[in-house]
Design a protein that fits this description.
The chain is α+β, with helices and mostly antiparallel strands and 136 residues long. It has three helices and four strands; from the N terminus they run H-H-E-E-E-E-H.
Length: 136
């Protein structure tokens, strides 16, 4: 079991991920991706006025799902970013929401929105786990 007291995913994975490995990770994290998709769409739409990238990453920092507007993928690592962890009901960090914005204004309010997005996904994962436990 990974150390959940460690900071959440700190940076995006810089190593290339072969297609089969990425697909395996997406299958492994299908529930998190399903729950995160509408939140990432909302987060991206909320930042439509600036170049940005919103991403869901797994516990290793591999991008599972991303949405971007006018952001050069080759520059993404140099664009300031922020993130917040997504956790299971037991507190284990399984991924993170990342937001990279090509501006340095309003960072506190943007971080609050990113943190709330991760909280909403974590809450839904916990709710589903509780429902499944009751049904069993």
């Amino acid at each position: 079991m990974p150390d959940t007291s460690a900071p959440a995913v700190q940076q995006l994975s810089q190593r290339p991920i072969p297609g089969a490995e990425l697909e395996r990770r997406r299958v492994e994290n299908a529930e998190m991706i399903e729950l995160a998709r509408p939140h990432l769409e909302w987060l991206s739409a909320a930042h439509q006025d600036v170049a940005h990238m919103v991403a869901l990453v797994d516990r290793d920092g591999v991008i599972l799902l991303s949405m971007a507007r006018e952001l050069d993928a080759n520059r993404t690592p140099r664009v300031p970013g922020m993130g917040a962890p997504v956790q299971l009901a037991n507190g284990e960090t399984i991924g993170a929401i990342r937001l990279h914005v090509a501006t340095d204004g309003e960072s506190a309010s943007r971080l609050l929105v990113v943190a709330h997005t991760a909280f909403a996904i974590t809450h839904e994962l916990k709710r589903r786990a509780q429902s499944q436990a009751r049904a069993a």
